[in-house]
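Worked example

This section walks through a single chain of length 160. The input is the sequence exactly as stored; nothing has been trimmed or padded.
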Amino acid sequence: MRGWCFAIAVMIGVARGAGAGDAAVTVTPLAAAQVAAFMQPPTHGERIVMLWSLDCAYCEPNMQALAKLQRAHPGKIQLVTVATDSMASSHKIAARLHAAGMQGYPARAYAETTPTRINFLIVPGWGGETPRTVAIHADGSRIAISGELSPEQLDRLSPR
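Given that input, the structure is written out below as tokens.
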């Protein structure tokens, strides 16, 4: 009997943990026609666009490092994740973002079947390798970094 009571208590605890504190991740489509407006400089601070894919080995550590940077500068950094995968994979994308602790950050995914076109519109000359981090400052300047972020690169992304 005590075994059953313990099992029920554990299930109740798991159910509570999956409640309000674990907000769902909503993935919004990013179409080619929206990229120009999406990549415009913010009115203040900076927007960091974290481009990633489901098959990327370094993407989750980068997302988590950028989320930590954003939490250190909440009024100065807007962090947005963009999966270069199709919206057809939105359930997988949402699950991966949730597992990485990225609830609460805007999440986008490519809405079109031609990722190279959207890649070019986001960063001309970018080959599509992930992870790719683009910081867009209010003054219009940008920093783009490919690969796993080093502490020095994270410092370059910090608001001045």
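What to look for: The chain has one domain: 24-157.
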